[in-house]
Amino acid sequence: MTDLKNQQLKVFRELINGDYSQKLTFTCGEIFPLAFPEIKISIQRLL
Questions:
Q1: DSSP secondary structure string, 9-43?
Q2: pLDDT tens string 2-34
Q3: C-alpha 23: how far from its chain's center?
Q4: pTM for the complete prediction?
Q5: Measured between alpha carbons, how far is residue 21 from residues 5, 35, 41 in Å?
Q6: pLDDT value of position 39
Q7: Helix or strand run (H / E) with residue 7
Q8: pLDDT of 43
Q9: How far apart are CA 25 and CA 27, in angstroms?
Q10: What is the DSSP letter of 34?
């Protein structure tokens, strides 16, 4: 999820009983999707 107002990318992973066990917030750098680990995505470009 992108939070454009606060310039943050929020990533939610591992849904367990209706809640995510991992909640990550990024403001810069790069991420690699779990489904496509060979693809690099710039967080700055998303924001």
A1: EEEEEEEETTEEEEEEEESSSEE--SS-TT--EEH
A2: 999 999 999 999 999 999 999 999 999 999 998
A3: 9
A4: 0.78
A5: 25, 18, 23
A6: 96
A7: none
A8: 96
A9: 7
A10: S
